[in-house]
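Continuing the batch. This is chain 6 of the set; chains 1 through 5 are on the previous pages. Same settings as before, nothing changed between runs. Recording input and output for traceability.
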Amino acid sequence: MATILCYGDSLTWGSVPNGGRYPKHLRWPSVLNTLLGSQHQVINFGLPGRTTIWNDPFLEGRNGLAYLQAALETFGPVDLLIIMLGTNDLKRHFNVGAYEAAKGVEKLIQKSRMPSDHGFPSPNLLVIAPPNILSPKGAMSESFSGATEKSQYFHQHYQDITSQNQCLFLNSAGVLQPSDVDGVHLDTQGNEQLAKAIFELISDKISF
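Output for chain 6:
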């Protein structure tokens, strides 16, 4: 049995565009678990607003780097760590772009490979470049002002980081786009498309 930890933000948590949370069976980690089979455990550890390495002045506990080690210990040993973070890094008040988000992911990769006090082996890693942000609407429009253009560079910079650090890589923008409702979050089809793309990538490697 493989333990797969999905470490992400609201796109992993299961936010419905413009408010609410999808039922568990519609969130992509659950869809992935169904595709892989019940002999494997896919853990959804998404949190709305989570960043790669930034402390958000408006939301507590969203620094992804600060909580990664605790997550790996809580759910460990983890066979596969799936990281999909960076969308929230593009919020206007952080004033950074896709390059800085990718460097933040690199810090997460390095943290996940540090020796474990419990003797857990380092997890295999899959890094997912977040989907391109469409024109943000509704509550998203102010927070993500200027993020649409920045998000176009996720693919390039994340691919560079994963190549340098020998991780599996998936460009989610190649398989889905966010909902038209708010331009940021996934609809049910997007959740399904992402789960299927991950399954195709890892299914022949899952006997970790």
